[in-house]
Write a structure and sequence with these properties.
Blueprint: H1 6-17, H2 31-50, E1 56-59, E2 68-71, E3 75-78, E4 85-88, H3 92-113, E5 118-119, H4 120-126, H5 128-131, H6 134-148, E6 157-158, E7 164-167, E8 170-172, E9 178-180, E10 188-189, E11 198-201, E12 207-210, H7 213-221, H8 224-227, E13 232-235, H9 242-255, E14 259-262, H10 267-278, H11 287-290, E15 296-299, H12 302-307, E16 316-317, H13 320-331, H14 333-336, H15 339-351, E17 353-354, H16 367-379
Parallel strand pairs: 5-6, 12-13, 12-14, 14-15
Antiparallel strand pairs: 1-4, 2-3, 7-10, 7-13, 8-9, 8-11, 16-17
Helix pairs in contact: 2-3, 3-6, 10-13, 13-15
Length: 383
């Protein structure tokens, strides 16, 4: 029997009324524009060489908090006046990365010019000794996207998705393949080309982001989507990959329904939720197409630990890394601008304990799906 969620319906109506105030995704860059920007980079290198100077690439430090600012309607965005970091061809410490960037630029140029696509994994395994590691290649692709000021999808390099999705949702892939996510027992992998998805059909009343794969599977096993009401559940299996974030954003744009987050009551879970909501420092240059600022924190709230009298033995003491992370979170502007979130983070810091979603099973085996989530959604227990 499906539950009636009046508070969710009210939230959905309010969301639809306020859509015109939300920043929309940036338009894709044309293929010709991508080619032109690559040509300008190569042209600068040729000019430097012709002058007898060592070529230099101008990159942006994507790990520096000083290079981003918080914009409430978007999230963490790149500052306009960021100072570039210079990658010198002539320095032993940077020459290898300089060469690898040129190599990837040549691959991108050919892909865009021929209107074809390749996955980062395919590119890496074409010459694994050259790139050294998949992580190195991934980082270079993001550096190029940031340097050219081009969305990564416009580079014609796709990433293999690690996320899964299930629920009341059907759509067509770019090649015309129909994808049906309605199966109650199995999930569908998030598309590697989210931008190409079209003809989205869904009666979902809300989208639920689930932090961990284990919790996501538990929801599937308990037939969560059918038991409650039409909804969509998605997981990035921990820290989300770009495709999982793109998918949440695309569904939010298409369906105009509330988006909730179900994460562990620990510093790591809160940070993962904030990545979906406000983005990350390393991908701040693509914030407009990756973030969903309306994400609501459904649980597990630190205050729920005491409210539901979670047994002490089910809690985990803070490690030093947790203390450092919680202190960092409390200093971030996207936490301090939300008093209710700030109070929850303070509660966790004072408690010096963390709790995984699975701890609710210590109350009752099906407490999460039969009591906790239905009550939260019915009575508006989110912040």
């Amino acid at each position: 029997m499906a539950y009636q969620f009046t508070e969710v319906d009210k939230l959905r109506e309010a969301l639809c009324e306020s859509l015109e105030t939300v920043d929309r995704c940036q338009e894709d860059i044309s293929s010709q524009d991508v080619l032109t920007r690559i040509e300008k980079v190569i042209e600068r290198i040729v000019i430097d060489v012709s002058k007898g100077e060592a070529p230099v690439l101008r990159l942006i430090n994507r790990s520096c908090w000083n290079n981003v600012r918080f914009q409430e309607s978007v999230g963490l965005v790149l500052k306009d006046d960021v100072s570039p970091k210079y990658l010198h061809c002539g320095k032993p410490t940077t020459a290898t990365k300089f060469a690898l960037i040129l190599k990837i630029l040549s691959i991108i140029y050919k892909l865009v010019q021929s209107d074809s696509y390749a996955t980062k994994r395919d590119i890496y395994y074409n010459d694994p000794q050259l790139f050294g590691s998949q992580r190195m290649l991934d980082s270079i692709v993001d550096d190029i996207s940031c340097m050219l000021k081009v969305p990564r999808r416009s580079l014609h390099i796709l990433a293999t998705s690690k996320g899964f999705i299930s629920g009341d949702l059907c759509y067509l892939e770019e090649d015309g393949t129909k994808v049906d996510c309605n199966s109650s027992s199995t999930a569908v992998s998030v598309s590697s080309n989210v931008n190409g998805i079209r003809n989205i059909v869904s009666s979902a009343k809300f989208i639920l982001i689930v932090e961990k794969d284990a919790t996501f599977q538990r929801l599937l096993d308990d037939d969560f989507c059918a038991r409650l009401s039409p909804c969509i559940i998605i997981t990035g299996k921990g820290v989300p990959d770009v495709n999982s974030r793109l998918m949440v954003r695309k569904l939010w744009d298409a369906l105009h329904v509330p988006v909730f987050a179900l994460v562990d009551a620990d510093p790591h879970g809160i940070e993962i939720m904030c990545i979906y909501k406000y983005g990350s420092v390393s991908m701040a240059f693509e914030a407009h197409s990756l973030t969903v600022p309306s994400v609501l924190w459904l649980g597990l709230l630190p205050s729920d630990i005491q409210r539901y009298r979670v047994p002490e033995e089910a809690l985990i003491p803070f490690a030093k890394a947790d203390e450092r992370k919680i202190s960092s979170l409390r200093s971030r502007s996207y936490i301090t601008c939300q008093p209710t979130w700030e109070r929850e983070v303070e509660t966790m810091q004072n408690l010096k304990r963390k709790a995984e979603i699975q701890c609710l099973a210590s109350i009752a085996p099906h407490f999460l799906t039969r009591v906790y989530l239905p009550n939260k959604l019915r009575y508006g227990g989110w912040i």
